[in-house]
Amino acid sequence: MAHLLSTSCSLKIPSCRKTFFQSPDQAPNAFPTSFTLKTSKSLFRRVVLPGESSQRSHTVYATTTPIKQEASAQKHSALHQSSNDPSKQKRVMVIGGDGYCGWATALHLSNRGYEVAIADNLIRRLFDNQLGLDSLTPITSIHNRIRCWKSLTGKTIELYIGDICDFEFLSETFKSFEPDAVVHFGEQRSAPYSMIDRSRAVFTQHNNVIGTLNVLFAIKEYREQCHLVKLGTMGEYGTPNIDIEEGYLTITHNGRTDTLPYPKQASSFYHLSKVHDSNNIAFTCKAWGIRATDLNQGVVYGVTTEETAMHEELCNRLDYDGVFGTALNRFCVQAAVGHPLTVYGKGGQTRGYLDIRDTVQCVEIAIANPAQPGEFRVFNQFTEQFSVNELAALVTKAGKKLGLDVKTISVPNPRVEAEEHYYNAKHTKLIELGLKPHLLSDSLLDSLLNFAILYKDRVDSKQIMPSVSWRKIGAKTKTVTA
Questions:
Q1: pTM to 2 decimals?
Q2: How far apart, in Å, are the Cα atoms of 311 and each of 74, 94, 143, 454, 456?
Q3: 38 labelled catalytic
Q4: Pick from 430, 326, 425: which is nearest to 101 by CA?
Q5: 436 belongs to the catalytic site
Q6: How far apart are CA 457 and CA 460, in angstroms?
Q7: Structure confidence at residue 318 as a pLDDT band (50, 70, 90)
Q8: Catalytic residue among 61, 193, 270, 344
């Protein structure tokens, strides 16, 4: 493989300290500045589309250091030697900050005075291209998003484009930004996507588990006091016939009592990857003294936060398809376009739900109240419980108030899951730390439905019905017909 020589040239790139591109010709158009190119010794991991051969490529680091900042670089480094200094702003790296939860969180933290960096390989956008999907809302590039935020607020969000499964990229990012906390959203987050075929099941587990392991090693090597705030999922627990506690369960067996991790009953290769993450994080907290908070999040709904509503270029994505769309978001879009609400099976599946405004609030609370060194905390992050049938009834009622003729149909359940079951999950720890929930009110449903109506011309009705079957997953790579 040919290696690039260290050089200096002029390109237009976003205003960030370090950006990573797969190759020079993929650099986005932005502003003139000088930077140095150097070749990574490791290979850039790329997702190979069905039918495409894997090609070797190299990571190119484009390092930007404006002249006026060079003199203060040494001072900057000294300011961030200790993550325990209460007088300085906390530096938070949001991995996966271009995604649904990540983007809203990055803006929220920046708006609250944190110094924020986004690390993302932008692969969520590639998934849409792979499967012929699109967000209901038009979303602009991450570079335009960050420029818009800077223009509106004067606040800078640094951007690192690269794959956390490439440890060289991740280590350089850690050493450059020096985070006090890492919010880890950077995983393939769809259960249906992980169940499409063998290649996507393997990708999900490799991407999620190896990426998280790399983050743990980066914290150990470069920022040992850094607090990991990891997005888990309530799906790790499954649907046991007993109450679901927050991470741990005290049991008595043969006359002896112990507090143990709550039993896990994951229901997809995606959910299993989250279980593996939790086990790895718990082990490294014990072995290395890492401080970590596992946020077992319920199903998120909504699209608007205080920050994303500030400008159309800050708008968050909203998925309504059968692969990435969550239940309430899908139902509202279906109602807006006159499609019957698609209830899977009997509709008794009950889960925890929360507004995306509460997602960002929970993350901020976790950062502001960090775990202790060696502590592995688990918070169940949701605010209310609903069955699928209850959600359908709520959307039907709200839709009728807007003059919509909302119907409901039962479709064969593509998943392997209990359709009627006991479900009572505890979720008190975040409330005790100050969470003020946005509960699912009539006004919120009205707002979400009106949002869906506003963009209903962008709906592709072919993407509404479920297309991924848990029982029919196979080894052969599946392609999507346009």
A1: 0.85
A2: 36, 21, 15, 16, 20
A3: no
A4: 326
A5: no
A6: 8
A7: very high
A8: 270
